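Dear colleagues,

As part of the handover before I leave the project, I'm documenting each prediction I ran so the next person doesn't have to rerun anything. This entry is a single chain, and its sequence is reproduced below.
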Amino acid sequence: METLLTAADAADSAFADRATRALDHGMAVIPVVWSDEENLWDQLGLLAASEMGSIHFSKEGEFRFWRQTAFVERVDSLTSVATLSRGRAFALSSEASWRNAYTQVNVEINPWMRGPVCDVYQSQDEILVAPGETVTHWARLSHVVASITSPESGEDYQAVSAGMADLSASLSVTLTPYAQQAKLVFENTHASQSIYVLRMKLRGVPMIGYGDDKKEYVSALAALPGKKELVVSGNAFLQTRQQAEMAGTRLRDLVQQPRRLVGFEGPLCPWLELGDRVTLPNESEALVVSLSISSSPTAMNMRLVLLPVDGLFPYTSYFTWGASSYADADSGRAYY
């Protein structure tokens, strides 16, 4: 995430000037990562989802990555920062549905391995380079690659004149490789002859996904009727058994019973942010999972979606670095 955000800073000065970042240390190692032209927000979201973390921007423009333990680590998630009064509410709602409960969570992981050297690109047309000119050609690769071999004349392409005379000595080829594409710059140094680049190909070491491994996490609650499975798939960054364990066990505990969501509309509490804990009118507590603000010339209001904390985590005591005592007995639990 740090690498992607640094690239965004370099590409957009407005983003660099206005956005800061606060990134939790990840809980897992992702063996293979890459990014070419994908949407930045989508990539950051997939990285977070690979270990059941979350991302968002604060009101101050700070990009935040929270690992899945954030709600048992953050002070404002552990202690209520505001009390929501029924008398000040414009609207209150509560919803819980069995449709949102699942008996089993299936997590598909996508391991990647290096394959043998092979052709990862083949041009379908000739590439024409006029005398004294330079042509930039983008090659979309058939695989994500770990490396690409610099193209060689006679092996990977032919450089010829209109009369099929060899002009390879007058052509220089510069390769800039990326994960899923490559930039080729052809420079023709001949004074009078155009060069036709024929049968251009690139060889490389592809990264091959050897099928999805599926891990199943079954609910232990006997009260759930029938069978209903939640499938987690399509995340190329979810690659290891450890990631599957972290995502699957947490999701299983979250969705094995219907989660009640509370809606609240009322005057804006200006310091309130996502993840903060609040006290509800019935004196129970909940976490802010959605926050939207509306304003008019005379008022500022907020609409919240709140997740009650009762039963949200299986235990009440967790070991936290820098806060908990390390002892032979009575230490906090090490999460999952």
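The helical segments are 2-11, 13-18, 40-49, 75-78, 241-255. The chain has five helices and 22 strands.

All the best with the project,
I.
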